[in-house]
Amino acid sequence: MFPHCCHPPKKFQPVTHVIFDLDGTIIDTETINQAAFRAIGEEYGKKFTVEMKNNIAGCVQKETARRLVEYMDLPITPEECLETFLSFTRDKLPDCDYMPGAEKFIRHLSENGVPIAIATSSAEEEVSLKTSKKMDLFGLFNHIVCGSSDPEVKRGKPEPDIYLICASRFADKPKPCKCLVFEDAYNGVLAGLAAGMQTIMIPDVNVPHEMWSKATLRFDIQQI
């Protein structure tokens, strides 16, 4: 029995490396982010909706800000939107919690010699804040690719660039088909699949079927 199996089990292939998204997959920054998005909208009498949330999740910071301004028809530039967002979230990021089961699973992979890395749309400065009080865990990762600041990442999720670059930075440079991706966002799932990697989605309850059905497999929080 395979709960929420999006493709027949016969299509599952052996993997050697695991790549994680960060926000909403390893750590619960989404609660902070959504509060910031709502506050920005409310300042201009606009409402931030679940549909907007699903459509911007996983995007690099500049694209997130651009979409927010467009979706909510805000009278500010994307650059101003991004700066407001960052000023709202920065001091809260070091204290964000782990997602259920994430820490235990990551330690299990590390203890069993599975190479692990992170491919996040966040910028390096914000990743440093998010991981500053959790280096005992984040020190287990081979490397972290930060899509909003890494010069090699030319296109953000849903394009495959960040996952292909992340795979190439493992010492043994595994083929994409040997990498397993964990994601919480639709754009991230599309990026992992476009990179030729099996991709597991761990969506929140508000993600509609069409946004997770393309994933190789879906996990729910209560299954982890």
TrEMBL record:
<dbReference type="Pfam" id="PF13419">
    <property type="entry name" value="HAD_2"/>
</dbReference>
<dbReference type="InterPro" id="IPR036412">
    <property type="entry name" value="HAD-like_sf"/>
</dbReference>
<dbReference type="InterPro" id="IPR023214">
    <property type="entry name" value="HAD_sf"/>
</dbReference>
<dbReference type="GO" id="GO:0016791">
    <property type="term" value="F:phosphatase activity"/>
</dbReference>
<dbReference type="InterPro" id="IPR023198">
    <property type="entry name" value="PGP-like_dom2"/>
</dbReference>
<protein>
    <submittedName>
        <fullName>Uncharacterized protein</fullName>
    </submittedName>
</protein>
<dbReference type="InterPro" id="IPR006439">
    <property type="entry name" value="HAD-SF_hydro_IA"/>
</dbReference>
<dbReference type="InterPro" id="IPR041492">
    <property type="entry name" value="HAD_2"/>
</dbReference>
